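Is this the right way to post structure tokens for a design question? Let me know if I should format differently. Anyway, here goes:
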């Protein structure tokens, strides 16, 4: 995949609401196989689509891209040996030493592309239509669903769900929404109405940990307001929680995948390599992975020396 193919894949991932990182080569030192302008997409699962360089660069870029997604902050990498850059590395850049047999080097800019918030509004009233319009103006993915049509499949752990059914099946909708365990779940209604609904669901056996996550009434407390101002209050609360990092579930999957996909380390040169690298060598019950044939051959000739070296580090 290259050129327009990378852009098309970016559009598809965005439409599906999936997090990914875009890596772009901005400088190269030959004989690196990459070129300035080469781009690749790295998914939250650690899959690389596009071209960013060969076996030396890819594992490092994947590892750094997943950290970028978890942090939500872009970074500029210099891939090579410290000697290639000397003391001329500007502040803010990250140097990642790699032992590449070609002796090439790369400068790669990695930026996170995190999905827009997914807001699910359940109900049918002027207030919910105003809320949907405001959320869409912010670029949020917004679904407006009638109470009778809502199911738990309409939301997931990254969704923000607002139940505004106003007495028309509140209990059934809230129970289905709680089962989806969204990052946010709010019920539009008074404290008294909320206590009644939650008490009913508790009697029905809905787990208490699900009920404890329901915010009622949804939105910031602005006192007596119009339906337009209620919509503003709800959206303001969601923006506030998102900005503060309180909506942890919205990016938990990305962080978990990043941790799960942590690459292995070549015991000979110390490079980061993916655990999917071909032909691992098993020594004393452990599989070791390598950046290339040279490191694998050196390890096979004297594995004990490199295992001891790895232990000291």
């Amino acid at each position: 995949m290259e050129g327009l193919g990378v852009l098309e894949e970016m559009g598809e991932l965005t439409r599906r609401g999936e997090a990914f990182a875009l890596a772009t080569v901005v400088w190269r030192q030959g004989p690196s196989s990459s070129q300035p302008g080469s781009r690749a997409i790295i998914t939250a699962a650690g899959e690389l689509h596009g071209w960013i360089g060969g076996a030396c660069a890819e594992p490092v870029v994947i590892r750094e891209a997943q950290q970028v997604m978890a942090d939500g902050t872009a970074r500029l990498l210099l891939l090579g040996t410290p000697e290639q850059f000397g003391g001329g590395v500007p502040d803010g850049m990250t140097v990642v030493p790699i032992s590449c047999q070609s002796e090439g080097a790369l400068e790669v800019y990695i930026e996170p592309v995190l999905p827009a918030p997914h807001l699910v509004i359940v109900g049918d009233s002027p207030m919910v239509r105003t809320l949907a319009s405001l959320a869409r103006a912010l670029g949020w993915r917004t679904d407006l669903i009638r109470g009778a049509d809502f199911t738990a499949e309409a939301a997931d752990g990254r969704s923000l769900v607002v139940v505004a059914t106003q007495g028309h099946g509140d209990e059934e909708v809230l129970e289905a929404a709680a089962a989806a365990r969204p990052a946010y779940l709010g019920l539009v209604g008074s404290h008294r109405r909320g206590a009644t609904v939650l008490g009913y669901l508790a009697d029905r056996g809905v787990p208490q940990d699900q009920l404890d996550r329901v915010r009622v009434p949804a939105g910031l407390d602005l006192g007596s307001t119009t339906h337009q101002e209620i919509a503003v209050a709800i959206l303001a609360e969601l923006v506030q929680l998102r900005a503060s990092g309180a909506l942890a579930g919205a990016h938990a999957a990305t962080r978990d995948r990043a941790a799960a996909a942590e690459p292995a380390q070549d015991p000979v040169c110390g490079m980061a390599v993916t655990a999917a690298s071909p032909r691992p060598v098993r020594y004393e019950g452990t599989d070791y992975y390598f950046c290339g044939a040279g490191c694998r051959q050196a390890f096979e000739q004297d594995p004990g020396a490199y295992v001891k070296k790895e232990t000291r580090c």
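Format looks fine. Someone answered above. Worth noting: The chain has a mean pLDDT of 84. The longest strand covers residues 20-29.
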